Amino acid sequence: MLYLDCAASTFIDPQVAETISRVMLEYPANPASVHGLGEQAAQLVQAARLQMATSLGLLSEELIFTSGGTESNNLAIKGVASAGRDKGKHLLVTAADHPSVLACAQQLATSEGFSVTVVPVNQQGVVDPDQLERSLTSETVLVSMVHANSETGAIQPVAEVGRRLKKYRQLSFHVDASQTLGKLDVPSLLPDIDLLTASAHKWHGPKGVGLLIRRNGVQLQPLFSGGNQQQGHRSGTENVPLIAGMARALRLHGTYDQTKTERLYRLRQSLVDKLGEIPCVQLTGVHEQSEMAPHIVHVCLQGFRAEVVVRALSAKQIYVSSQSACSERRSAPSPFLLAMGKSESEARAGLRISYDHSLTEAGIVDFCRQLQQTLIRIAH
Amino acid sequence: MRHVLIVRLGELVLKGDNRGRFEKTLLERVKSIVEHVPDVRIETAFGRIYLFAAEEATITQIGESVQNLFGIHSLSPAVVVENELSAIASTACLLADKAIESERGGTFKVESKRSNKSFPLTAVQMSAHIGGRLLESFSHLKVDLHNPQWTLCIDMQSTQSFVYLKECTIAGVGGFPLGASGRALALLSGGIDSPVAAWLAMRRGLHLELLHFHSYPYTSEQARDKVIRLAKRLAAYGGTLKLHMVPFTEVQEYIRRKVQDRLWVTVMRRAMLRIAERVAERASLQALVTGDSLGQVASQTLGSLRAMEEATSMPVIRPLITMDKQEIIRLASQIETLSISELPFDDCCSLFVPEHPTTNPNLNVVIESERRSRQLEALLAQAIERLETLEIAALTHSSNPPLHPLL
Questions:
Q1: Would you please indicate which residues of A are annotated as catalytic (active-site) residues?
Q2: Cβ–Cβ contact B257 with A under 8 A
Q3: pLDDT beyond 70 at A325
Q4: B358-381 pLDDT, tens digit each
Q5: Buried (b) or exposed (e) across A188-200, using 16+ Cβ within 10 A?
Q6: What is the value of ipTM here, to two decimals?
Q7: Nearest-CA neighbor of B310 among B355, B260, B361, B374?
Q8: Gap from A17 CA to chain B (nearest CA, Å)
Q9: Final residue of a domain: which of A225, A253, A281?
Q10: Taking CA atoms, what residue in B is nearest to A242?
């Protein structure tokens, strides 16, 4: 089996699964309860919070535990929009953003009367900071931007935008780092960021839990009403097992390590080189490695419908992806590829190969051979 | 290109006859760090240790660990060149390029030192020559001998020269090498202050053992883990160290029963010092180290300190005595004990605190109430008997330890 869909989800680390199962059995109480068992659960959550905050260089109250990337994005965007509606009603998102960001902004536009600007991307799938800055108005309360696009892996100029936005004090800057935490040096960006989304199952943690980093001082209207857990930012009993699992996964796999990233980039180079030898395969995005996420390679299979190739490879137990997983079940051209100026047929021909540290050179050779055979078979 | 880390020893070079021993202690510590790193060569010179490596990254990596050793004044990463004018000049240009690239500014000076007197140029001539070369190569640079934005240093040794930017020098933590000042016992509570006090004492050359009082079931297993974690962090600076865990529950319960509540803390702390003194004597340690800071809480007023000190004849060293809380927190954060100390598990000092503890205990009353607590002495002896000693090895930053066994 070759699992090459790590940008959609990674396999859970067995140690993390063990933590979750043990916490489920051994910490049964509600962390809000005053008695001993409740106290134990609360202390575990607190230790998890502190451990994660410390490894990211944050204060522990700057972490909000959510149910994952989509909730974090919703909380960031709707939370800032509602809290700041007196200051202005303009939101700025980018065409590279995840559907949960785009749909969220769209919803605020149709039902709450916000105006939304979607900053376009160039042919490489990258936003231009100048153009983004020109799109700001005195009414802008939020700029949301993905760190690396989940489909092609194009890295967006988050550091540059963060620096420029420093002078616009009325607005908050949200970054969706679902794809990049642990793979790129996200902690170094945090000083210029107000809100940041991360999702545990992208770094060998469990599904259904994530983080919204909220820097101190950023005003946020909660999505949920309830028991005011997590300082009121996210009501609802803390999911103790998944939070503990997330903390362990972050320690084991979510901490940025330059050596590991360099290895991922070496794998990427090797994959790009070998894919380049297959006819009809066209690399998407920039050829400069450092401007692409280290764990994603995206290609267009000229003249093919990618979903057919995905199913054919799946029969050989090779698992890749045609669009970003969250919209995959719909058979439509990729909106992001269209935004990059690709034709409709090209936008149906995108194949994403995404991997983790377990990929080997032999795996790459095997994958490219199988892909080539599959393409030959389908073409006839 | 070869690289070197110039390690300059601190105050210890002034220490007359003991210097050799101190230097040897420090050299051993440096060796223990470097032995895990491939291809590093060590040389020593008066007041200095040189660490040679082929890669600049290796030098950076060793620097991060060596920087934490006590007894080091400063560290400079340098490039090693042959004793040849053209080689020195081209390296100088390389470093100047780096200085310009990192936007250090356009004014500079060259500082040379010549221990190799056979070199054809004197130090002054060398500086002038290299300065001239830099001015030729970089048209926008200017020399400023009094207030330069960066300084290029050339250290001419007998067989080679070291070239470096003065601004890349890293300050060491100073102090004396471990053990140079003797051995002592530090009381470690689990709070923010006591690990800082221990670190400061170690920096002054004290080899420490640690003592912790626990009061299970009033304190939790997590509180115990927390103290072990703190000890591991301290061991990163002080090498493997002993942690003595004293069961203190029965002593505390007894004091609470026998002594008027205003004096609980005073009597309890005196009991701690008594136990500490005996543990120290048994292990041939010569002093006690505590994290007291004057006036921080009721038990740290001058009156309370006086009443406590009377319980022991050993010197009690209080490195934090005049420091503000903010300074202590800053140090705790710098030595990376703060995040451990902030874990929310109670230690035995925060238990059994009366509502109105006295800030000025009357020593006679204290001694009298201890005299009336007839079993106290026996309970102290029993606590010492039940003491458990752990060997604690260093917790390095890179091992990225979990805060809880399940995390």
A1: 326
A2: no
A3: no
A4: 888 888 888 998 998 989 999 999
A5: ebbebbbbbbbbb
A6: 0.77
A7: B361
A8: 11
A9: A253
A10: B407
